[in-house]
Amino acid sequence: MPTVPPAPTAADAVDVTALLERGRTLSTPVLRTAVGRLAPPMDTVASYHFGWIDAAGNPAEGDGGKAVRPALAVLSAEVTGAAPETGIPGAVAVELVHNFSLLHDDLMDGDEQRRHRDTVWKVHGPAQAILVGDALMALANELLLELGTVEAGRATRRLTTATRALIDGQAQDISYENRDRVSVEECLEMEGNKTGALLACASSIGAVLGGADDATADALESYGYHLGLAFQAVDDLLGIWGDPVSTGKQTWSDLRQRKKSLPVVAALAAGGPASAKLGEILAADARSSDFASFSEEEFAARAALIEQAGGREWTAEEARRQHRIALDALDTVSMPERVREQFVALADFVVVRKR
């Protein structure tokens, strides 16, 4: 379910597909070379995760994801007047950390599908998912520090801070699954850590490598952080009502995992009969030992209560609100108008996507 599109702007003329493809094209060769440095069989397992080979080791053209983070990292270099290539090490480092988190999250959440095929832990086992995730995180910092510049040191510091926040967010996410209630504020804090922190880093890391001062980098991080909250709000909508053909995940994915996502916590906080009924059902679910055997109809009934209580519409409006805050942050940064329009276009893309 996409949110309501933002108002038309000059950024509507930007080809977002080309912008995403530029980030992917510039970063993928460097990413492949970096992954090739991993010891066997981690190099093969990582290649499978990135979609470069299939489970049998044959070359493949898998879905490599939306590539929003590499696009942002490359674009942010241009804020300083540097060439987009300046942002490539940052783009690759952020992508490595992002995929470290995906490998571990899939295992912790028990997700069997990502990007329309089996996850690494299901194909290669939990141990390889853990090891390869660890290796990717270490490799991200190694790649930046190898640049040997002051700017690289500043970029690494921002990346490690974002990585720690991301891990904090995952810990919060897991802890919330077994709680009857989570406040909207707690959920937003968790999602800011889990998603916002790394998008904030992606939005600033290229600029830092290009020599931007801290004030500029901080403003770009604010853009990325709030963009991350908008991104996650849309993700939460798709996690319940998304089309499995588009998302590559099961129907009612987040409900199956008992996630306290924004639509759920907003519905529980809303009050009213649907909210009260939902609270009773979810409290009983938390005590159930037979949750995995629930029928499609049972999950559909929970989704309907969330919608009736207003959780779906509240989350869609929150995505729009965070989108507006992200764009406001750009107003404090001096940059070429063309670059500003591309940042706006990427933000618009995030809140209207279907996967």
TrEMBL record:
InterPro entries assigned: Isoprenoid_synthase_dom_sf (IPR008949), Polyprenyl_synt (IPR000092), Polyprenyl_synt_CS (IPR033749)
Gene3D superfamilies, per database record: Farnesyl Diphosphate Synthase
Pfam families tied to this protein: polyprenyl_synt
Keywords linked to the UniProt accession: Magnesium, Metal-binding, Transferase
An MF annotation (GO) of this entry: metal ion binding
GO biological process: isoprenoid biosynthetic process
Domain of life: Bacteria
Coiled coil: none
UniProt record similarity statement: Belongs to the FPP/GGPP synthase family.
Protein name: Dimethylallyltransferase
